[in-house]
Queue: 2 jobs
Job 1
Amino acid sequence: MARTKRRRLIQRAPNYGGFIPFGVQTESGLEVVLSYEEYEAFILCDNEAMTHAEASVVMGVSRPTFTRIYSSARKKLAQALVEAATIRIEGGNVVMATQWYHCSSCSVDFNADKRGSVCCPLCQSEGITLNS
Amino acid sequence: MIIAISASEPVLQSMVDPLFGRSAYFAVYDTENKGLRFIENGHKDSPKEAGRLAAEELLGLGVTVIAAGRFGNKAVELLRLKGIQMVISAKGQKVEDIINRIK
């Protein structure tokens, strides 16, 4: 039996589902699915200017594994640009580093590490929902 | 409770800056004495680790809640370690909107 994959640690899922190209007919239905770990790897390297070694520690995987995730992300994004494909960001073998909640009356998101009774840090109301 | 809010300009009507580490100013509001002041972010243009440096500076001021549009991973790591509450503002919210919501 193959060895099970270690779950990748991500800080926060994106608050949008992906991208669609404009100016072209997208009925061809080309679609690229970017997983959460690939999205996170891409951000760590290219937006936060970390090296693969640093980023692999943040995501809790080995350096070679990180490089593989990252290459896969780059390949998919390049393919999506060339083929004018829709990019969907979903799925993946991930675990969130912290829980993110949404307060509907303040319309803000906030994090909480502790389980149990959590209330909004601004208005102290308990009308909050857990973001998936 | 002392809350720091990333701000694009040093005024109450300023937008909450979409970035934490590279925002131009921080609005520091003390709920005890209702004192508000703006501090300039000296790490705005630092080539690396702006978020972590800014977070350390705010920690020195005794801030316990930080609001911004987005936090970088290094900042998140440090702030979680220190038990600082992170708040992510919605698009188009102003500094005064956040402050008015505090009870």
Note: The beta strands of chain B are 2-7, 25-30, 35-40, 65-68, 85-88.
Job 2
Amino acid sequence: MRTMLAKLDADDPKVIRECLRNLVALATLPAVWSGADPRRIAESLAAALYSTLEAAFIYVEIAGRAGEPGTMVAQTGRYNTDPALAAHVGSAVKEWARARDPHDVLLLKEPSAGSEWRVAVRPLGFDAEFGVLAAGFSDQHSPTPAQHLMLSIVANQALPAIQNALLNRSLRETQESVRRANEELAASVAELQRTNAELRDSRRAALNVMEDAVQSRARAEMLNQELARHKEDLERRVQERTAELEASHRQLRLSERMAAMGTLSAGLGHDMGNLLVPIRVRLESVAAMNLPQEAQQELNGLRGSTDYLQKLASGLRLLAVDPGRTPSFEPTELHDWWEEAIGVLRNAMPRGVALESQMPNDPCWVGMPNTALTQAVFNLVQNAGDAMKDRSRGVVKVAVEQREGAVFLTVSDNGPGMTDEVKQRCMEPFYTTKTRALSTGLGLSLVYGLVQDAGGSIRLESDFGVGTTFTLKLPAAKPPMSAETLPSPRSALVDVTDERMRAILAAELQELRFDVHFDKERVRSADLVVADHGDWNGDMKGRLLALTTKELAPRAAIALGEKPRVQAVRDAVRQMSRELVSP
Amino acid sequence: MTEHSSTNKTPSVLCVDDNAAVAEAVRVKLTRHKEFAWKGSLPAADELVTVCRRDCPDLVVLDADMPGRDPFEALAELTEECPGIRAVMFSGHVRRDFISRSMEAGAWGYVSKNDGEDALLDVLRKVMIGSIAFSPEAKRYYSQ
């Protein structure tokens, strides 16, 4: 600068003043450039220099980024609008600025007019790194030193602004890149997050699906198991039901056969019974005659046969399914019954076969008459014994158990058991596996009829080669009123005119353990009075009052109407007897 | 106790049974020891009341199941018409309803043919001394 000023000193002061004035004018430019972009700097620089230096044109080019064109401003109307001319000038001055001294003047021919420009060129930065600044003059004296100086000063002033602008631009571009990169990054992050979220959702969904699948599978397995259980249960029920139906069917067939056979058998039994009466009587008559010994023996043989036939006739009649034959519920206490029956039952056992029993501890009453029970059990025990005749260590066991309001009496053996055919047919009348001489084939049919009569049922279980068990399910019964429970003594006065009714009352009252009297004088001691109208002239109530109040009243009285029904009288007597026992 | 037991007269019997062999057997059985006198037999109950009115037997042995007139109906009429005659049923049918109908119709007893002719003899003896009586099998049904 000092060299330049010294050079100015040597020149005309007028030039220096002009130069200073222009410098003052240009001094405001840096303020304008602050923050401006390179193009704006170039345009303002060109505008300022054009007017200040009175140049034909000003060429300013700011270096661009690699691979990009620079910013060129040819500050004349013509050059500014003619790209070809601008390119011509630009290439010349850039070449000049790199190779020559800044104070050398470039002579540049004007392409259209043929005249020559004198051009002062200043590089911006080392080796025109940031661009080039050129001022073209048409007159021969320019550029003057002051113009050179101005151009140098302005170039020096402009350089930092241009550097800043370029840096700013670069910075902005970088910032923009960073911003874009950030945006892209943010977008990528958002995308990533979205993707992650989607992935999470997908994963969750997948997990849910898997969980659902697992649960579904577990449920399916559970359902399968349940289904299998139901199937097993159903199959079992079907089997049970089928077995029950088959059993019912067998029972029905048996009942039908029994009914048909029973009717036939009962008729046969009845007729046999009828015929046996004259046979026995005739035999008795014959026996009363003075017969030889041999004839007596023959007669005894005939008697044996009639006894057998009588037994058969009785058995046959029991097989009838008779609507008028009501079941018998006469109660039997099983311990007492066993004591009484065991002798007969033991006799039915073949040698070597043991008879065992198992009775409940407490008294056990069953609704079946003593004789019928003996008859039924005798047949079962006898059959069991016969089945084990040829076997060693045979045991027939009679067991009693009371449960569910019923008495279960079982007769079991460890004999050979039954085949299926025998099991199905053994209850049929006349069916037997023994020789006819030993068996009528009515034993089990009889048991069946007796048990049915008592309102019970019979069940047979038999395994071939293992043994047989008959179970009689019989109605449990309450103990009857025993002599011990009755007040003693009880007496009854029967003051009834009709002989037959008197006999009926006497029998009934004796059955109920009354001492029966017919003498009216015994009324004082009577617990019960039964009277009809007799020869009383008043009403029955008066007769009873006369009987019961005048003479130290008995505890109860029954008045009979005219021609009373036998059953009604018996029922009344029984009812009164019960009331007399009650406290 | 009764008019029959108080006299020495041999009680007479009329038998009604569709089976002549049975009636004859009853005759033989009852008259063997002259304990009872025989008034004859009828094959059905149709003429029962008429014959009884005419012959006045002390006892009637009556089958419960015969062709012809219903024996229970005939018995009821007999009870009404001839209250002094004591009838005993003698039947191969031992059923609660038969026994019940017999007693309502006026029978003094019921004998099962399965219990035998000795049971009949026994029951007739009891009836003659003023008791009602049953053979063992019939007794079981009457007692229920």
Note: Residues 145-288 of chain A form the longest helix (144 residues).
